[in-house]
Recover the amino acids of this structure.
C-alpha cells in the first residue's frame, strides 16, 4: 500500500504544476468584456430581427434598394422564361403521340404498369418487334406506349 | 421582490468596502436583465471555468472560446435557473457538458497542444520543488518539458477520467460536487479517479520513480 501512496503523492506533485499554467497577461480582464459584448449583440438581434434591418436599409437608401429590387425581378422573369422554354415540347415527333394516353393494340390485353416487376432490364427480341408490328393497326399508332403497356408474354419480350 | 432588488442601489455604489454580493442576489438581478450583475458573476467564476476547460483541452484558444460560449449560453438559459443548486455548480455543469461535446467532435482531428506559460511562482512551489529535488532522477529536465509530458499524458485519458482528475486533483472540488456536476454518484467519481491516477502513473512512470 505504501508504494502506491508514494506514487500517488508524486503524481499529485506533478499535477500541482498544472495549477501554475496561466493564460497570457490581461486575458481575464478582457474576457468579461468580450462576453458582455456578445450578450448585448445577441439581445439586440432578438429585439431587432433581420427584417427590421432590411426595412431600415430600404428607408435609408431607397435608390439603391430600388435598383436591387429591379435587378431581382429581372432575374426572376429571365429564370421563368428560360424554364418555360426548357419544358416546352415544341413539334411532336412524327407518328408518335405525346399525350401520354396510349391506345392499346387490338387483341393485346392491357397490363397495368405497376404489375411489371421493377428493377428488371427487358431485352427486345426480333420476334417481339415482329409481333409488335403485327399488332399495330396502321402507321402512326402509339408504338412506344403500346410496347410498355402490353403484357410481356403477349409482346414476346424476354428478360 | 424582483423590483425591490432592482431598485436597490448596487452595494459597490453605496459602500465600496462592503462584502461582495451573494451569488443568489447577483443571479436574481441578472435574471431581471442587469448585465452588470452578470458581469460580476463572470468575473467571479471565469478563472475556474477557464481552468477546467483549459486542463481538459490543453489549448488556450479552445479554452478561451469554450469559456466565452459557456457564459453566453448560461446567460441565455439564466431565466430557467431555479436555484436548485448553486450558480457555481450550474455554470460548471454547462462548461463540463460543452467541453465534453467539443472533445467528442475533436476526436477525429489532429490536435496540437497550445499550452499556457508557467507562472513565476511555479519554481517556488514546494510541491514542484519537491518534484525537481535531488531525489528525482530526472532533475535535469526543465519544467516546460515536464509540463508538456504531463499534458500529453492527461490527453491519453478518456474524457470522463480526465475530467475527474481535473476537477478533483487540480481544481480541488470534493467528490460530491463533482458527482453533481457530472451527473453521476460519488462512488463512480471515486472509481474513475482511482483508475485515472493508475493510468497517469503508468504513462508518467519515468518521472515518478
Amino acid at each position: 500500500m505504501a508504494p502506491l501512496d508514494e506514487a500517488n503523492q508524486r503524481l499529485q506533485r506533478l499535477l500541482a504544476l498544472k495549477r501554475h499554467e496561466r493564460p497570457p497577461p490581461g486575458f481575464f480582464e478582457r474576457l468579461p468584456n468580450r462576453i458582455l459584448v456578445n450578450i448585448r449583440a445577441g439581445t439586440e438581434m432578438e429585439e431587432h430581427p433581420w427584417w427590421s434591418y432590411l426595412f431600415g436599409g430600404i428607408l435609408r437608401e431607397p435608390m439603391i434598394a430600388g435598383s436591387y429590387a429591379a435587378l431581382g425581378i429581372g432575374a426572376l422573369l429571365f429564370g421563368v422564361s428560360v424554364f418555360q422554354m426548357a419544358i416546352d415540347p415544341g413539334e411532336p415527333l412524327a407518328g408518335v403521340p405525346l399525350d401520354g394516353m396510349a391506345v392499346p393494340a387490338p387483341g393485346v390485353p392491357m397490363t397495368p404498369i405497376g404489375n411489371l416487376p421493377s428493377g428488371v432490364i427487358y431485352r427486345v427480341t426480333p420476334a417481339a418487334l415482329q409481333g409488335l408490328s403485327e399488332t399495330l393497326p396502321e402507321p402512326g399508332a402509339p408504338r412506344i406506349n403500346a410496347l410498355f403497356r402490353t403484357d410481356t408474354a403477349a409482346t414476346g419480350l424476354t428478360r | 421582490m424582483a423590483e425591490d432588488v432592482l431598485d436597490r442601489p448596487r452595494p459597490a455604489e453605496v459602500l465600496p468596502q462592503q462584502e461582495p454580493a451573494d451569488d443568489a442576489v447577483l443571479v436574481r438581478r441578472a435574471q431581471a436583465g442587469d448585465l452588470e450583475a452578470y458581469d460580476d458573476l463572470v468575473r467571479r467564476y471565469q478563472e475556474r471555468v477557464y481552468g477546467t476547460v483549459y486542463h481538459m483541452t490543453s489549448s488556450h484558444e479552445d479554452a478561451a472560446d469554450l469559456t466565452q460560449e459557456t457564459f453566453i449560453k448560461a446567460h441565455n438559459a439564466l431565466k430557467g435557473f431555479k436555484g436548485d443548486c448553486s450558480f457555481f455548480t450550474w455554470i460548471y455543469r454547462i462548461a463540463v457538458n460543452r467541453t465534453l461535446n467539443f472533445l467528442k467532435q475533436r476526436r477525429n482531428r489532429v490536435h496540437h497542444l497550445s499550452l499556457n506559460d508557467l507562472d513565476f511562482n511555479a519554481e517556488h512551489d514546494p510541491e514542484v520543488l519537491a518534484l525537481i529535488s535531488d531525489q528525482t532522477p530526472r532533475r535535469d529536465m526543465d519544467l516546460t518539458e515536464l509540463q508538456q509530458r504531463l499534458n500529453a499524458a492527461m490527453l491519453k485519458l478518456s474524457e470522463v477520467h480526465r475530467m475527474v482528475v481535473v476537477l478533483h486533483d487540480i481544481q480541488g472540488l470534493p467528490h460530491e460536487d463533482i458527482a453533481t456536476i457530472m451527473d453521476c454518484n460519488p462512488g463512480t467519481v471515486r472509481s474513475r479517479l482511482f483508475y485515472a491516477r493508475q493510468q497517469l502513473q503508468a504513462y508518467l512512470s519515468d518521472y515518478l520513480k
About this structure: Residues 93-98 of chain A have pLDDT under 50 and may be disordered. Chain A touches chain B at residues 7-8, 10-24, 27-28, 31-32, 34-36, 38-40, 42 (CB under 8 Å). Chain A has seven helices and one strand.
